[in-house]
Specification:
Layout (H helix, E strand, L loop, with lengths): L1 H37 L13 H8 L1
């Protein structure tokens, strides 16, 4: 029975892999980039601004 379970688990991971890769590429990576860029002065060669961007928007 363990051998059968391992075979099914391997097949399940094989079918779930494209979904996991897509989730990482199209959700996790862009989300991380948005968080990173929110702490920068600009996206092209900007310097670390910290929370200054958030303070600027809260004071408007």
């Amino acid at each position: 029975m363990k051998k059968w379970f391992r075979k099914d688990a391997a097949a399940a991971l094989l079918f779930l892999a494209p979904s996991g890769i897509g989730f990482g590429l199209f959700y996790c990576i862009p989300f991380g980039m948005v968080i990173y860029y929110s702490f920068m002065d600009s996206t092209a060669g900007g310097h670390f601004a910290g929370l200054d961007n958030y303070r600027e928007h809260l004071n408007e």
